[in-house]
Amino acid sequence: MKQSLAEARPRAVYLADVLKALAHPARLRIVAALCEGSQSVTELSSRLGLRQAVASQQLRILRMSGLVAAERGGGFATYSLAQPRLRQLVDCLEGCHSETAGAGGARADGRTGRRAV
Questions:
Q1: Domains held by the chain: number
Q2: 76 membership: H or E segment, kind and range
Q3: CATH code, 33
Q4: Is 108 part of a structural domain of the chain?
């Protein structure tokens, strides 16, 4: 029988590392874009409005975390999800935003409706 996440410290550590890798707006946006299919750094930077150097740096972090894979060919790399289940996580996060947006949650500017303490 599989141990629950609450009781499985090594699994919790691994998953926390995955969340840390995604805990940057540019990296999260890159993963969301890659959920739609493989893309080059040029395509990603253009689509997301990021400088190519920034997109490359964030892709390097995602690759080092094992979340994104790169396939080289024709003089450039094409990036794709190394962990297909990230699609489910992105969908879940989108759902969380939809549910909280109308209840004082995240606003269009990315801030929450809560006061700082």
A1: 1
A2: strand 76-81
A3: 1.10.10.10
A4: no
Q: What is the DSSP string of 24-71?
A: SHHHHHHHHHHTT--EEHHHHHHHHT--HHHHHHHHHHHHHTTSEEEE
Does a structural domain hold residue 107?
A: no
pLDDT in tens, the chain (117 residues): 788 888 889 989 999 999 999 999 999 999 999 999 999 999 999 999 999 999 999 999 999 999 999 999 888 899 999 999 999 999 999 888 777 766 555 555 555 554 343
Range of the domain at 97: 9-101
Q: How many other CB atoms sit within 10 Å of the CB of residue 45? A: 21
Which residues neighbour 86 within 8 Å (Cβ) at sequence distance 6 or greater? 31, 34, 35, 67
Structure tokens at 82: 């190394």
- Describe the crossing of helices 9-22 and 25-34 by its angle, rounded to 10 degrees: 90
Backbone phi and psi for residue 61, each to the nearest 5 degrees, phi listed first: -65, -45
Residue 4 forms part of a structural domain? no
- For residue 106, being part of any structural domain is answered with no
